[in-house]
Amino acid sequence: MDNWLTAILLGILEGLTEFLPVSSTGHLILAQELFGYDAAQWRQFNIVIQLGAILAVVVSYWSLFWDMGTGLLRREREAVMFTRNILLGFLPAAVIGLLAKDTIDAMLESPMVVAVALVVGGIAILVLERTITPGEDKGVAALPMRTALMIGLVQCLAMIPGTSRSGATILGALAMGVGRKTAAEFSFFLAVPTMLGAATVKIFDDPALLAGEATIGWTEIALGFVAAFVVALAVIRAFVAYVSRAGFSPFGWYRIAIGSLAILIFMDVL
Among candidates 134, 137, 146, which has minimal Cα distance to 84? Predict the structure, then answer.
């Protein structure tokens, strides 16, 4: 029963943080460190519950994906440009992620890296919020090719655990003159190929998971998947509405607070 509760809580944590600029991977690593459960045992679980968050994006924007998919078959201009921008944004992460996989895996083992990245990222959010003026929301399809590719390059910063994939892409987009709503939605859409690609690589690197075996029971994995899906589904729409109105500063302060607290704990100050 303890494993069931842990699975649900971790699923909720994944759903809450995956699409906010606060780093879901960082929060999962800190949770493992602070609560003392075996990270290796839950590694497969963490891979699978991310797929629940991806499914939430697909469900939330189902009609848009359908329109873009059918429009692409008819070679409609908007659908072609939308697909082009998603692929351009995904390309840098696909290339760099494969080339730097071992380095990334090593950083995932360091909770102190996560804590420092949370603080640095929080400061970056506050600075950018004060210095940039978001552009007009014209939609993902209207992004210039260069902007989509540059946002994809910025997304690669999130390979440092604690940086936040959504935070990097959203703030990178804002710095390039993209509107808040478009920046947030591009980050969501970019998550689908990026997270699917990362999960696929991790699955093929894990013979046990590839064989259908799991170190954590499939009941726990199912509970975490459903929790991540349901919570992410609620977060996605609420987040777009909130940042369109209030901006990102509260997330910057949150990152600084949680990262500083983690640093103090890991240094045995608290």
Answer: 146
Q: What is the pTM of this model?
A: 0.86
Q: How many CB atoms lie within 10 A of CB 35?
A: 10
Asked whether 108 and 42 are in contact (CB, 8 A), the reply is no
DSSP code of residue 75? T
Cα of first residue to Cα of last residue in the chain, in angstroms, is: 30
Rounded to whole angstroms, how far apart are CA atoms 118 and 124?
10
pLDDT at 218 > cutoff 90: no
What are the structure tokens assigned to 29, written together?
A: 């690593």
Instruction: Tell me the C-alpha distance between 37 and 220, whole Å.
Output: 14
Residue 86 is encoded by which pair of tokens?
A: 């998603």
As a whole number of angstroms, the distance between CA 179 and CA 60 comes to 20
pLDDT tens for each residue of 182-207: 999 999 999 999 988 888 877 777 66
b/e per residue 71-98 (b: at least 16 CB within 10 A): beeeeeeebebbbebbebbbebbbebbe
Six-digit token string for 148: 């989509």
